[in-house]
Write a structure and sequence with these properties.
Elements: H1 14-26, H2 33-40, H3 48-56, H4 65-72, H5 77-86, H6 88-102, H7 107-110, H8 129-139, H9 146-150, E1 197-198, H10 207-217, H11 221-229, E2 232-233, H12 242-251, H13 255-272, H14 277-284, H15 288-298, H16 301-316, H17 321-327, H18 331-337, H19 340-357, H20 365-376, H21 380-389, H22 394-401
Parallel strand pairs: 1-2
Helix pairs in contact: 1-2, 1-3, 4-5, 13-14, 20-21
């Protein structure tokens, strides 16, 4: 990998730098814009189309900006990922910066051209004060004009600017800090999204109609918050919270209305999902933590526990053996109810009793499964899988081998 810069970081085209920055973000290796430009400076302008092709593809490895450059130069992506994880490219960055400082300036750039006025041509002498003044000015060397001072300085590939002593920065490549690392603006400098209305307007009398219409459309207060976030912004641009929504509901005396709807929705969903909190949260568009907080706020912990206990008793009851064999392979559901270990023990005990009844007639695994399936109207394959999972086929397996 050539560690000599082919161009100045600021000469890297912005679309190329933005594409690589987005690619690194999607590859779980985000980097600052300054670091991206430092890496791309190691490539020539002719390699930009290869960079764009790689950045447009979907990343399959964790690659930072220097790893992307390494891949463009011919390194395998797996090797580049290993180098990224071991910190190899941090050394590459330091070496490239040192090389850029040690590189000599081009001879043409080290010399400053001196502009001199050409000798005035001879002309007929005219006795005028203004002409004498003009001749005097023409003899003086012309200095640098304002246009020349403010004109952009053109650099060539490999040319390095003279180093001006500055205070050391905390980290190299952090000249372009993301906005999220800066303090939020305050007071009159606060930026408010003009496309969204102020949340405080909902406290007015006409805000009650808006809240009533939204309550009819959403199942719970968290969904109401997400709906309001799309059209309203908090005070001084702050992010809305569930507490803000509850304040508005209490202000318009609508808290009892949404609580009644939430109780019905949560209880109906927990019954439909047979006591599973995980599946109930998914059906309501909530996380498990949000569902637990909502249940606690509604004060329906006892009702929820009763529903879950009922389905737990049904799962442990020895009534429908076919259903219990199917539930044996629903480990997440049983774990959600908190009966996974107890369920396996109870079912294993029941199957052992059934096996003891046909032990004398069963001479092999197929014979055992066939007898039990016929006597108890069970699916033979499901029964065999259950017996195998519970470790009840080992004696017959050893007998077959013997």
């Amino acid at each position: 990998m050539d560690l000599q810069r082919k161009r100045h970081p600021e000469d890297v085209p912005t679309p190329i730098a933005v594409a690589v920055s987005d690619y690194c973000r999607r590859a779980k290796a985000p980097a600052s814009p300054g670091l991206v430009r430092d890496a791309l400076a190691l490539l020539a302008e002719s390699d930009d189309f290869r960079v764009r092709e790689l950045a447009d593809a979907e990343p399959t490895r964790k690659l930072g900006p220097f790893a992307v450059v390494d891949v463009i130069l011919g390194t395998d992506e797996q090797v580049a990922e290993q180098r990224e994880l071991t910190g190899y490219y941090e050394m590459v960055r330091k070496v490239s910066e040192e090389n850029s400082k040690k590189a000599p300036l081009p001879e043409a750039a080290s010399k400053i051209p001196v502009l001199t006025a050409s000798a005035p041509s001879r002309a007929p002498v005219e006795v005028h004060a203004s002409s004498e003044t003009a001749k005097t000015r023409a003899r003086k060397p012309r200095g640098e004009t304002v246009k020349e001072r403010i004109a952009p300085h053109k650099r060539k590939a490999g040319e390095v600017e003279p180093v001006i002593p500055r205070l050391p920065r905390a980290l190299p490549g952090t000249a372009f800090l993301p906005k999220r690392s800066l303090p939020a603006p305050r007071g009159r400098f606060t930026t408010v999204d003009p496309s969204r209305a102020s949340f405080e307007s909902l406290f007015r009398n006409e805000g009650r109609e808006t809240m009533e219409a939204l309550i009819e459309q959403v199942p719970h207060r968290v969904a109401l918050l997400r709906t309001l976030e799309a059209g309203y912004v908090g005070k001084r641009g702050a992010i809305l919270s569930v507490g803000d929504v509850e304040d508005v509901l209490e202000h318009h005396s609508l808290f009892e209305l949404i609580e009644k709807k939430e109780r019905e929705v949560v209880l109906t969903s927990i019954i439909d999902e047979k006591g599973s909190l995980t599946r109930t949260a998914q059906s309501l568009g909530l996380s498990e933590d949000e569902l637990e907080k909502l249940i606690g706020a509604l004060g329906i912990d006892r009702e929820i526990d009763e529903v879950r206990d009922r389905y737990s008793r049904e799962a442990l009851a020895p009534g429908n053996l076919t259903l219990r064999l199917e539930m044996l392979f629903r480990a997440r559901y049983l774990e959600d109810l908190g009966i996974d270990r107890k369920f396996s023990e109870v079912l294993k005990k029941q199957l052992v009793e059934l096996i003891d009844e046909v032990r004398d007639a069963a001479t092999s695994v197929p014979t055992l499964v066939d007898l039990l399936a016929r006597q108890h109207a069970l699916h033979a394959e499901s029964l065999r899988r259950a017996l195998d999972k519970l470790g009840l086929l080992e004696p017959w397996t050893k007998k077959d081998k013997g």
